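Glycine-rich protein, pasting as requested.
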Amino acid sequence: MSAWHSGDRLPVRPRIGYLVSVTRHLLGLSALISGLVLAGCNAISGIGSLTFDGVGASGGGGAPPGDGGGGPGGGGGEAGGGGEAGGASGGGEAGGAGGGGGAGGAGGGGACDGEPCPVPTGVDVVEQTYTELRGSPGTATPAMDRCPESQVLLGFRGSLGPLGESLIHAKIQAQCGHLELTGGGPYTITTMPGDVTPFRGSEGTEPWEMVCPENEVVVGFSGWSGRYLDLLFIACAPLLVTGPPGDLRVELGPVTWPDGVGGDGGGEFPDTFCGADQVANLVQTVVEGGAIGAFGLGCTTPSLTY
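Structure tokens follow.
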């Protein structure tokens, strides 16, 4: 027998045969060990095959309740069924997915503590106040001509009479009107002509009429005066329903000034208005020497009825 040295080369075929033989022995040993382990598990459990119950994911709960206090969230879905364990070499099937949770109840709405808000049915007027008299009232007690019921002033008519080279207001009458609530939210307040007040003063020579724009009411006046009422302007405004459903209120819109009526005598007096969010429903007049010596308004507060 000759010795093998590191520099010597083995024949090719004998080396390959040697490797194949070693590999076969290792595979056989691995199979033997796997069989023993599986048999031992079966013997301990007392069953012929192993089954594993998988647990599916639970379904999510419902959406959170809405702002108005919603219903409770939906319940979670049922767990999915478990998958069967595979054989010695195959993997087990995955468990079924859990069912989806039910949707949460819708939030309760309402700006009136969860209850239906009251619905307005009309417009009424409350309280009574008075503006200053403009002109020369003297010591006379003014005539107070109020529109009937819940009517308010929509304008005036009358006639002018000569005074020297100018004109003055000889007589005057107020045009009243009804307030009507329309719509179902948003709401609108409209006007409709109603009654008239009595004429105050004496017959003039030049008739005139001055009314607010459509769906506006009288809220103030301005003009010129001396001994008599020379020139008259009226201030008008629409009525607006504002606020949330549970707290509706009536407010004045932008003020407009129709063209004035009268002569160019006397001196200018200050703009004179009803109180905040008030409208005119009465005319004050003082008659002096058969003509209008002083003029003013009476005012009230419009409010919604239910």
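Note for the archive: Residues 122-305 form a domain with the Vitelline Membrane Outer Layer Protein I, subunit A fold (CATH 2.100.10.30).
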